[in-house]
Amino acid sequence: MLAVTEMVTQTTNRSDLNCTLPHDEGRLPLVLLYSAVLLVGLPANLLTVLLTGLQVRRKNVLGVYLCSLSVCDLTYLGTLPLWAIYVNSGHRWPWSSAFCKLTGYIFFNNMYISIFLLCCVSFDRCVAVVYSLESRGLRRQRHAAFVVLAIILVVAIGHAPVFTMKEGATEGSHHCFEPSQSSAMVTGFYYARFVIGFLLPLLLLVVTNRGILANVQRSTGLQSAQKRRVRQLAVGVVVLFLVCFAPYHIILLVRGIIFHFPWLDNCSFQKAMYTPYTISLGLSTINSAVNPILYVLSSNNIRKDLRRGLAQVCGRVLVRTPSNTSQNKIQPINNSLELNTGSERLAAGKPPGT
């Protein structure tokens, strides 16, 4: 049986050498997708870094996670121009093999750091809402900073084998981390990414957002419209995660399972899985552009800072004009901010300081 398996594997490997993958399929949509994500995500994350930085200075615990998430997304977005050039060039890497490995390392590192930070955001919000009184002495900025550093360290060490993978060697083929026949190490990565990087985070997001939703629905101090807003945010968090990361990780799981059946891991399978794989990888980048809108700009404190900043900018512009009536129009904006502060906190179902 072992001899038959080795013979099948050798035959499959030889066929894979002559297998031409459909690199041109989905080229234009992928380039447009990467460009759109970069155009939306770059200014959105730059803005949220500034806004969440203010929250960090005010000793806001959730601000540590949100600021770290925005910085992570910015680093992630920084690799998109390189991938767009690579895809547009017919999947030919124009730079060195070392640079390919470094780019892939940064890309995948920040993908999973982002996923784990999303879990931290949901967990911290759940604790602050469901256990608001009990958690006041436990939620500290230094604890949040330690968690962020631990996540970065663990993910960075876990992806260190990227520098030794043959998929990152561009000599000869000029391909950079293209899917190919799996090895035992790559298959292990597939399973680890699916379970640790997708399945467990998904379960945590579902449980924490369900806890937030249940607590808010039981509240008698919130109106139905406010409860609906919280429900939409909770559902949106889970749906966004599924849309962005489920297709990619399901394909990884399928490729990992196929590794145990060498006679199925042939050229036909590689061609059939190639386009769905590239599209699913592109979908995963959307998360970095939507995160600022869904997580950061939905925060009451951050929205208040943004409104104050816009009011100050508008005030400076209007003060320069000679019209007194234009200057007087600024004051209602400031007053409305103060009046809406309490209702905004109730709409999010969170206690002050979260």
UniProtKB/TrEMBL annotation:
InterPro entries: GPCR_Rhodpsn, GPCR_Rhodpsn_7TM. GO terms for biological process: G1/S transition of mitotic cell cycle; negative regulation of G2/M transition of mitotic cell cycle. The chain crosses the membrane at residues 31-51, 63-86, 106-131, 143-163, 190-212, 233-258, 278-298. It comes from the Eukaryota. Keywords: Cell membrane, Disulfide bond, G-protein coupled receptor, Glycoprotein, Membrane, Receptor, Transducer, Transmembrane, Transmembrane helix. Residues 44-295 form the G-protein coupled receptors family 1 profile domain. GO terms for cellular component: plasma membrane. It is a multi-pass membrane protein. GO terms for molecular function: G protein-coupled receptor activity. It is found in: Cell membrane. PANTHER family: G-PROTEIN COUPLED RECEPTOR 132-RELATED (PTHR24234:SF7), LYSOPHOSPHATIDIC ACID RECEPTOR 5/SPHINGOSYLPHOSPHORYLCHOLINE RECEPTOR (PTHR24234). Belongs to the G-protein coupled receptor 1 family. This is G-protein coupled receptors family 1 profile domain-containing protein. It comes from Astatotilapia calliptera (Eastern happy). The lineage of its organism: Eukaryota, Metazoa, Chordata, Craniata, Vertebrata.
